[in-house]
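Hi R.,

Here are the chain sequences for the assembly we discussed:
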Amino acid sequence: MDSAPLLDVQNITKRFQTADGVTTAVDGMSFSVAAGEFVSIIGPSGCGKSTVFNIIGGLVGDYEGRVSVAGDVVAGTHPAIGMVFQEESTFPWRNVLENVAFPLEIADVAKQERLEQAAHFVSMVGLRGFERHFPAELSGGMRQRVALARTLASKPKLLLMDEPFAALDEQTRLLLGDKVLQIQQALKQTTLLITHNLTEAVQLSDRVLVMTYRPGRLKRVVDIDLPHPRNSEVVSSDAFGHCVAQIWQDLREEASRGIQEDESRVLHAGAKR
Amino acid sequence: MVAPWARSQAGARLFGIASLVAAIALIESLIRVGVINRFIVPLPSQIIAALPRIISEENVLHRFWQTTQELLWASLLLAVVGIALGALLYRFRILRLACETWVGALAAAPIVLAYPLFLVLFGRSATTIVAIGFAAGLAPVILKTVEGLAATRHVLINVGRSFRLSPAQQFWKILLPSALPSVFVGLRLGLIFAMINIVGVEFLINFGGLGQLINELAERYDLPGTYGAICFVILTSIVFFDVTQRLERWLTPAA
Amino acid sequence: MSAVSAAPTVRQVTVLRIVIIAVVLAIWEAVSASGLLFRDVVPSLVAIGKSIGGLLAGAEFYGNLGITATEIGIGLLIGGVSGLAIGIALGANRFLSHAYEALIYYLGPTPKIIFFPVMIMWFGVGTGSKIAMGVVSCFFPIAISAASGMRQIDRVLIRVGRSFRATTWQMVTTIYLPAMRQPIVNGVRLGLGVAVIGTLLAETKLSNRGIGYLIIQAYARFDMPRMYALLIVLFVVAIAANALIGRLGRPRHP
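And here is the predicted structure of the full complex:
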């Protein structure tokens, strides 16, 4: 079967002007994501993953290269791409149902209709019964689920997530990961997840793209052969450990390089004074 | 050693109230004895007795309603104009950089001192009173609106962008709701300033509701009445302050 | 997707400010010349300018300014000292604070000018009642900020003073006041603002001297350019005084 990839990223390069000169955050990254695939991008802190997220999502312009989704070139935020952010992003003044119904409201869907649809997505992320609650009454993990449901309600072709579970504890992460995978498999939702968490990447993805430390380049692509349906129990299997080992070697190299470069930069800055 | 009843908050409050009552009783006896001239300070008992008389004879309810109407008009103007100007300053950064300090200076300026000017412009009327109330309360509304809008969390703006909101949608559905707690704080401040100036100007120009009542009673040399009316107006403004404070606390959940 | 537009430069902001002022003045002059509003209500800028000149050149203005300034000064002194004293006492003692601070807090945001008839009865129709208005006005913000300033003093500093067995007076002058400089300055700034208002409003209501009197005189004679002149000078002085005190309050950094 030869179908065009849903997401096609060609040679994106992003440079920033900083106080110390020009920094290259991302350097010539190219990859693609096929329809229905779950792909993770993993890399150490500071490797430019969030820049990749912002570029694909259309929040940042002024870069070299090309991003296209479903054949359409991305220039600014695109209706086919749904974003889930790392920080708290639920609207505190709306309850859960109204939060999730937000994209439908923007699309001028009639009130009764959109609340019904929203309820469907609320239920999908496992928050049935919490429709009338306000985000302040929910835990961090529940709020991220609301954010996810809200993005899913806009029925995006590509689900783009930037470390959505970074602020949560490990157990919650694993269980939420299960939920996300369940939904992804049910909807056949094409998903691109940015993360620094190795377990999460292997647990959820079909493929893992490993990034180098700044400037961010594609270091390696690892296919995850774990069978579907998966859940968090897979974490304890041998096959899982094998996949992790493959990726950890590269990740460790990049992470150490990152720490070393940070330290030397701080030392130099101190010496200048 | 602190007495146990003195340690509790309630105990202290009771002491405070009791001491005030005792002070008033002391003043009453000093006047009766003649140490304090009763033509300068009327008997507190007389003042208290004057209150029901004032309420019935002087149409206090009607006057209260007059002052309230002036305040309502001023509030409407404050909300509409203040928030609109605040939004304008937020939207155009260069405008904000140019004008924000001016608005700050406006907040410090003694606007009510220009009331003779307003008298010339609008005559001895409710319009003058509303205009001064509005002018006095405008600055905090604008400043707090700008502050609230500017403090909108970046991620929420990005959520709006990711859903491709138009600038108008971005403003009404994200920026303004996010800024609302700050806007309420500004509105409350503006309302307090407006109220103080409205009652003050009513007194000064001898027109309107409660402020005018005091002026009239003073000109009639009705001592207990004047004192009583002053107490009544002070009480009203305290209640207003407290009610708006509770409202603000209720509307702005702790961030 | 374009990046955020560059921040406006200082020069651009200054230019915009000049443009805004120029436009406002131009509209003013146009309305004045058109005679849209009754006669002198919007006098020409030239007339206002002349009046300001005449005002600042004449001795009458300075005489009255001196009277008003003296009234405000004395009012601020009496109100300030008593406000500080009571504020410090309330801030230092929890019991007193719970007993009386609410009273001051709630009496603060009330229209003080309505006390004027009582002030006249107690202090006469002359300067005394005006000073009293100033005192009543500025007492509250100063007391409130002194009380809260006291409470926010680092406990350590107080213990240091006690460990050296400082007297109350020494505690106040060497520890409390310096530590509370910021909130006190803010309180005085507010206090000055309301003292100016209280004193001047009293002068407009019943007086034959002072800036307030001059303003109401201009109103009675319908000498509009003079009224504008007085108000402009008054506002400039008030805003400048406010800004000056604000500078005083800025924390001194080594």
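Residues 52-251 of chain B form a domain with the MetI-like fold fold (CATH 1.10.3720.10). Chain B has two domains: 4-41, 52-251.

Let me know if anything looks off.

Best,
T.
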